[in-house]
Specification:
Helix content is about 20%, strand content about 30%. With about 210 residues, the chain is of the alpha+beta class. The protein has one domain (about 45-205): 3-Layer(aba) Sandwich (Pathogenesis-related Protein p14a). The protein has a 9-stranded antiparallel sheet.
């Protein structure tokens, strides 16, 4: 009788250990591909086709201004608006650019909605750690990009590579490094062609 009461707890303990082992094994398996990824906070995350940091596609420009503060530069015409914020308000510093548009004649034609977000700071990264400062070869490990356009200003050329399916594009300078990352609605190539570089000549490549 005493043996029965002694063996039963041992069986329960063994079963619990087995369950724990399976659970832990599942955890290891499910995180196997992500353990080496850098930790990216929500404030610095580039989420292709959705958001950069706390700024989201489809958000109103008024809402963006509330959390980014007064913009340093802006230009608006025919329902479209290009708005820029410089780090510490220094025009030589990193910048955040937003292209927004009002649907003229629509139900909310008084609201300018974000269509494109661009950043130049290496602070912002995708979950894979992709951001400015990387080479096109390094970016190609994670995104399937296509050379779609060039910005030309004097002797400087920025080549634009876009992963239309994901909704993200990369600007590559003369040294082969990424200097700007933009996101747009997935499969919306027309937005990926937009130039956010005042004074530059924009060339869309012919297909």
């Amino acid at each position: 009788m005493h043996k029965k009461y002694f063996i039963l707890p041992l069986l329960c303990l063994a079963f619990a250990c087995k369950q724990k082992t399976v659970t832990n094994l599942h955890a290891v398996t499910s995180t196997k591909d992500t353990t080496k990824l850098p930790l990216v906070s929500a404030a610095q995350l580039i989420d292709p086709g959705k958001s950069i940091g706390l700024t989201h596609l489809g958000e109103s420009l008024d809402s963006v201004i509330l959390h980014l503060g007064k913009p340093d530069r802006g230009d608006a015409a025919m329902g479209a608006a290009f708005t820029t914020w410089f780090a510490k308000h220094d025009t030589l510093g990193h910048e955040t650019d937003v292209y927004s548009h009002r649907m003229m004649g629509g139900s909310d034609d008084n609201i300018s909605r974000v269509k494109l977000i661009r950043v130049s700071s290496p602070y912002f990264k995708t979950v894979q750690g992709v951001g400015t400062g990387l080479s096109l070869k390094e970016i190609a490990k994670h995104f399937h990009t296509e050379h779609i356009a060039d910005y030309i200003k004097g002797n400087d050329t920025l080549m634009v590579y876009d992963d239309t399916k994901e909704g993200i594009s990369f600007e590559i300078d003369n040294t082969g490094k990424c200097t700007g990352v933009s996101i747009h609605k997935p499969k919306d190539a027309s937005t990926g062609y937009l130039s956010l570089h005042p004074g530059s000549t924009y060339l869309r490549l012919k297909k």
